[in-house]
Write a structure and sequence with these properties.
This protein is α/β, with parallel strands linked by helices. It contains 14 helices and 16 strands.
């Protein structure tokens, strides 16, 4: 019987390596890393975070997508949605002939168009149980690029459900990863979940546990973030805490502590093991990138630039961290830096883009740069080149590289 499900690629790593390097690597980034993550030209010093850009899970997901195109040159290849949250990467897949079933790159195709001879790529975020079942019924070929860190979270929320615990997930109810994660709580038809996006929403859940918030207020506020049939009086007695892997790590830990404290106050410390479960499901790559930008900001740069998709949760988390220490500009790529006088960016904690003036001052300047886990080095290198160009500084690294 022909194999229809693939999770480990097709053994074509070497065959696609050249294309991936051409699309996503940067000689300038390689040089800066070799120079201890710092480059000074004239009055401009660029400091690069020691952990940035593509993580292992993203590398793997993108590589498997390239392998899929190589393996099935004569088949229709579909993606359920963005493979990762980076516009350059997704546009490149469109150019390679991949069809998107949802989102900004969708051209009208739907799951109904999928046939038995077609190939469907599941993105790094994973897909919900119901969507996976739909594809299995289609008997199409599935290429699963779900990140291993996401799979770890799934295992924990499944365990919560089996043991009768409601999963509280620190994440965004509309995010693909969180949608996929909470679907795992209902595998046996009994599991329950509630999604909290931040400390403020966690506090509301804690208020209900302490009996200081009404049912009416609860349902009105969390209508889009709870499982079907959710009853807070029944389903907030035994709780397990997990998180979307790209959230602020410190905040995820705080969510867990707040829930535990509320349960202790309600049921007593001696009974807490009957009411609370928590596992460290914070992605190591997310943690490393957050730690690295904090370390870099300790050197007190004049400003920070964070590069990544505007809809990238982990990039937005980096921006939020950086905003606590320096003026920060979250941009998608070099085109957002229009001039020294104007930049298009997404401010920390917001979802809309704005234009700011006089963002790149003259004189001696130190700039911190980092990038989300879905941002390729080619885009990071292009941004750095553009910064020096705007500052009228010529990067000339001898025979190694000249930009």
């Amino acid at each position: 019987m022909q194999e229809k499900y693939f999770r480990k690629g097709f053994g074509l790593k070497q065959e696609v390596a050249g294309s991936i390097e051409k699309d996503y690597n940067s000689l300038l980034i390689d040089y800066i890393k070799a120079a201890d993550y710092e480059l000074t030209v004239g009055a401009t010093t660029l400091k690069l975070a020691r952990e940035f850009g593509f993580c292992y899970g993203v590398d793997r997901s993108v590589e498997y997508a390239y392998q899929t195109v190589k393996r099935f040159p004569d088949k229709n290849i579909y993606l359920t949605g963005e493979i990762i949250h980076n516009p350059f990467v997704n546009k490149r897949l469109v150019e390679m002939g991949v069809h998107f079933l949802s989102g900004a790159y969708n051209q009208g195709e739907t799951i109904a168009d999928i046939g038995v001879e077609d190939v469907v790529i599941l993105p790094a975020f994973g897909v919900s149980v119901s969507m996976l079942e739909e594809f299995k019924k289609k008997e199409c070929t599935l290429v699963d690029t779900t990140c291993g860190s996401v799979l770890v979270v799934w295992k924990h929320v499944e365990k919560f459900s089996r043991e009768g615990f409601t999963a509280i997930v620190h994440g965004k109810y509309y995010h693909e990863e969180t949608i996929a994660t909470v679907s795992r709580t209902t595998l046996d038809g009994q599991g329950k979940y509630i999604i909290v996006k931040d400390i403020s929403e966690t506090r509301k859940v804690c208020d209900y546990i302490r009996k200081s918030w009404s049912r009416q207020e609860f349902f009105k506020y969390f209508a889009r973030a709870i499982s079907p049939g959710f009853d807070p009086d029944r389903d907030l007695i035994k709780i397990g805490v997990a998180n979307q892997t790209t959230m602020l790590a410190k905040e995820s830990l705080q969510v867990g502590e707040m829930i535990k404290t509320a349960l202790v106050e309600r049921y007593g410390q001696e009974n807490i093991d009957q009411h609370f479960r928590a596992f460290d499901t914070i992605c190591s790559a997310t943690q490393e990138r957050q730690d690295a930008i904090l370390e870099l900001l300790a050197s007190k740069p004049d400003l920070a630039v964070v590069i990544g998709g505007f809809n990238s949760s982990n990039t937005r988390s980096l921006c939020s961290l950086a905003a606590q220490y320096a003026p920060v500009f979250h941009i998608e790529d070099e085109a957002d830096m229009l001039s020294t006088g104007q930049i298009k960016h997404q401010p920390a904690g917001r979802t809309e883009q704005v234009f700011s003036e006089n963002w790149l001052p003259s004189g001696k300047l130190t700039i911190a740069v980092t990038a989300g886990a879905s941002t390729p080095n080619s885009k990071i290198g292009a941004v750095i080149s553009r910064i020096f160009e705007l500052r009228n500084e010529k990067i000339d690294l001898g025979s190694t590289i000249s930009v």
